[in-house]
Amino acid sequence: xxATTVSVSEETRRELMGLxxxxxxxxxxxxxxxxxxxxxKMRFHEAAGLFRERLSESDLDVEDLIE
Amino acid sequence: MTELVVDTNVLFSALYDPxxxxxxxxxxxxxxxxxxxxxxxxxAELRDVLVRKLDYTKDEWSxxxxxxxxxxxxxxxxxxxxxxxxxxxxxxxxxxxxxxxxVTGAPVVSGDGDFHPLEEAAVETxxxxxxxxEIDGG
Lengths: 67, 138
What we know:
Chain A is mainly alpha-helical and about 70 residues long. Chain A is built from three helices and no strands. Chain B has one domain: 5'-nuclease (Rossmann fold, 3-Layer(aba) Sandwich).
């Protein structure tokens, strides 16, 4: 896979390297891939939380939405 | 990478219970193990239900749409397959899902009984649990 350069501050670099070591990742790219998956999952779980909240506020069941 | 076409009920069920088989399918997509497709009609139905029945704001709908790891397929991409799709499924509203499957070659995952089995189209269909078993086994 082709690589490219991302400019980050020295502090961010230090933190990324620390996290890479802490998680036993072979590269920062591998670490960032993991963090992106975690972010996507968090965003999905937030959407699921909102959905359940709105559903419970309504008098509908999930089956009522699937026509 | 495994590719699947999902319909509306899979996405609602995933949002309702992320630990359910439909939720697992979405999780596989978030992890990059599978690629999910759906026709734009599924996106429109989701939006309509969330806004009309659950009072989602424009921003809430936008955030939800972005949180779903789905590649939406526009009608011009699948319209050439829509006649074959209509002849294969009882509910005409589901034809775009079948057409999306015909155009991508990816099987359909749905909990809707109308999809099981499809007799007239060369489209593979799975129920969500069977799909999870297939991905886990693969």
